[in-house]
Amino acid sequence: MATVGSAQTTTPEDRAQKSFAIFEKNIKLDLYNQILPLLFTKEQFRAILPAIERTRQRVRETEKLEFDELQKLEAEMDKALKDAADKQALPPAELMTKISNTLKKLSVARRLIVDMNIQEVNDAFMKVANPGQQKAAANSLNLALYYPNAKPEEVKNEQKLRIFVSEVLLHPAAYDLMRKLSL
Fold first, then answer.
1. HSE on the CB side for 181, CA within 13 Å?
2. Can you give the pLDDT at residue 7?
3. pLDDT, tens digit (0-9, with 9 covering 90-100), for 35-93
4. pTM to 2 decimals?
5. What is the 3-state secondary structure (H, E, C) of the chain?
């Protein structure tokens, strides 16, 4: 009975936090489910980790640049929001254009970084993985989950490997798991 009572006093924020923690466990289990069947040795994990570390650093640098660019717009955005709420004034077209152009520029830069990161880790993976491990990686993902319109028989192994690298090896939670497996 005490369990029911305590469950009722849980706040929505507590439930959301707990749900998020459980969801993260699911992500880790899924990553292990993708990584462990590769049968990588500790040495193979150690060989691929530096490439992943460089990509993580690149992402942090990109996020810093994005933050700096967005912060340049914040004062104008705050003023436009205040004027919209207080005076029912439409946001200035020039500001909306400036925001749109900034977001487009950031999106292009992010896409270039993502492509660069996938290529770097894919190259490292191809150097350390034997043909059986490459085949296991290429066939491990259900492509329909990531690309619903793709016809699996038409997707080449090279493309499947890039998807594996992007969705598994470059997943933010994968680095810590692989680090542990390398010890």
1. 21
2. 53
3. 999 999 999 999 999 999 999 999 999 999 999 999 999 999 999 999 999 999 999 99
4. 0.83
5. CHHHHHHHCCCHHHHHHHHHHHHHHHHHHHHHHHHHHHCCCHHHHHHHHHHHHHHHHHHHHHHHHHHHHHHHHHHHHHHHHHHHHHHCCCCCHHHHHHHHHHHHHHHHHHHHHHHHHHHHHHHHHHHHCCHHHHHHHHCCCCHHHHCCCCCHHHCCHHHHHHHHHHHHHCCCCHHHHHHHHCC
- Distance, CA of 89 to CA of 80 (rounded, Å): 8
Phi and psi of 139, rounded to 5°? -100, 5
**Tokens describing residue 59:** 């992402």
Distance between CA atoms of residues 111 and 49, nearest Å = 22
